[in-house]
């Protein structure tokens, strides 16, 4: 009887530990990307944050602006700011954007680095494809589970 109770306690502990696994398997994260991600794809899970940093120099009249605004149902812009730089006049400063992965789907962030008054092509461009998965999709992928095939 004593051995059986130990076995039952061990089984219960494993079962409860496994149930707790679903709560600790994935925590929201902040994914940081820069110009090296140009023309690449990024995968997020709903609730994650994406921080994009691109170099620039506002003292030259150039600035980053959207060519295509991301779908806010998928990727919601939260903050945008220009970093402080070195403090020297004319020094480069990084441009920053922060987004929240709001819902499952796919969207793009497309930006151009140009002077607003010029009609020539932009000096630089940046584009990244973003796929946001639901937590259920990510969990199925991590556990290698697939929905049953339809007959």
Topology, please?
Elements: H1 2-24, E1 30-33, E2 40-45, E3 49-56, E4 63-68, E5 75-82, E6 93-101, E7 105-114, E8 124-133, H2 135-143
Parallel strand pairs: 1-3, 2-8
Antiparallel strand pairs: 3-6, 4-7, 5-6, 7-8
Basic shape = elongated
- Low-pLDDT residue intervals, each spanning 5 or more residues: 19-24
Characterize the biggest β-sheet: 4 strands, mixed
Q: How many whole angstroms does the radius of gyration measure?
A: 23 Å
CATH topology: Immunoglobulin-like
What would you note in describing this structure?
By secondary structure, the chain is an alpha/beta fold. Helix content is 21%, strand content 40%. The strands form two sheets. It has a four-stranded mixed β-sheet, with no helix packed on it. The N and C termini lie far apart (48 Å).
List keywords for this structure.
alpha/beta, Immunoglobulin-like, elongated, 151 residues, 4-stranded mixed beta sheet, 21% helix
Could you give a quick summary of the protein structure above?
With 151 residues, this protein is α/β, with parallel strands linked by helices. It contains two helices and eight strands, in the order αββββββββα.
């Amino acid at each position: 009887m004593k051995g059986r109770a130990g076995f039952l306690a061990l089984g219960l502990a494993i079962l409860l530990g496994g149930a707790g696994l679903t709560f600790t398997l994935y925590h929201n994260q902040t994914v940081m990307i820069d110009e090296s991600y140009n023309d690449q794809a990024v995968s997020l899970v709903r609730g994650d944050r994406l921080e994009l940093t691109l170099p620039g120099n506002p003292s030259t009249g150039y600035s980053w602006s959207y060519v295509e605004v991301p779908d806010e149902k998928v990727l919601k812009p939260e903050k945008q700011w220009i970093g402080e730089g070195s403090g020297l006049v004319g020094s480069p400063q990084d441009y920053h954007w922060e987004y929240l992965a709001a819902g499952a789907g796919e969207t793009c962030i497309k930006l151009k680095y140009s002077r607003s008054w010029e009609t020539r092509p932009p000096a630089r461009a940046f584009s990244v494809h973003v796929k946001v998965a639901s937590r259920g999709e990510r969990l199925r992928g991590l556990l290698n589970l697939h929905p049953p095939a339809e007959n």
